[in-house]
Amino acid sequence: MSGWTSLKLTDERERQFEKASEIVASSLDDDPLMSVVIDAALAHLADSEENIRDGRAQYDPVTIQELCNTSGIGLEYRTRIKNNWR
């Protein structure tokens, strides 16, 4: 991953940023910086992956798959975590 990048915001990405901004905002009047929204999303992704791995010790694979599959992370039973973005 390079150290510098520019974001090209398609309409879909713009909608995703808006939804994420609403989640991160501390109040209705808050408009968090894009970097804050990105930081929160990255932290959430890393935490989710850790929670999935930890949950496998307590729950059966089907339950984990039903609860944790998202558009960004797909689980294929106990074999692997599949990244749907690449």
| Sequence of strands across the biggest β-sheet | 1-2
Q: Quick one: biggest sheet?
A: 2 strands, antiparallel
Shape: elongated
* Helical stretch tally: 3
Order of helices and strands: HHHEE
User: Structural class of the secondary elements?
Assistant: mainly alpha
Molecular structure report:
The chain is mostly helical and 86 residues long. The chain has 3 helices and 2 strands. It has a two-stranded antiparallel ribbon with strand order 1-2. Strand 1 and strand 2 form a beta hairpin. The longest helix has 22 residues. The protein starts with 10 loop residues before the first helix and ends with a strand. 2% of the residues are buried.
SSE topology sketch:
Blueprint: H1 11-24, H2 34-55, H3 61-68, E1 73-76, E2 80-83
Antiparallel strand pairs: 1-2
Helix pairs in contact: 1-2
List keywords for this structure.
86 residues, 3 helices, mainly alpha
